[in-house]
Amino acid sequence: MKIMSTSKLAKEKVQKIQAGFSAFAETHEVTDLIRKEIKSMGLDVIEEKTEHGSWFIPKKRA
């Protein structure tokens, strides 16, 4: 079983968002890291919270 660090997982999801794709985070830790990264990069993103996690949807699609 491959174990991935949460920071690496968050960075990969932010790269997807930058490319114009949506990303989903299931844990609060990854969600917080994605929020911080999005804020520091100034990305324009919609966050939709569900009972299972958060969707991050870029306003500008690919």
Task: Give a quick precis of the structure.
The chain is built from two helices and three strands; from the N terminus they run H-E-H-E-E. The protein is of the alpha+beta class and 62 residues long.
What layout of secondary structure does this protein have?
Elements: H1 6-18, E1 23-25, H2 28-41, E2 45-50, E3 53-58
Antiparallel strand pairs: 1-3, 2-3
Low-confidence runs (pLDDT<50, min 5 residues)?
none
Strand content: 15-25%
Number of DSSP-assigned strands:
3
Number of helices: 2
Shape: globular
Strand order of the largest sheet: 1-3-2
Can you give the helix content as a percent range? 40-55%
Q: Describe the oligomeric state of these chains in a short phrase.
A: single chain
- Helix-strand makeup class: alpha+beta
Q: Distance between the terminal alpha carbons, to the nearest Å?
A: 33 Å
Estimated radius of gyration: 11 Å
Could you tell me the mean pLDDT? 94
Structural key phrases:
24% strand; alpha+beta; 62 residues; 2 helices; single chain; 3-stranded antiparallel β-sheet
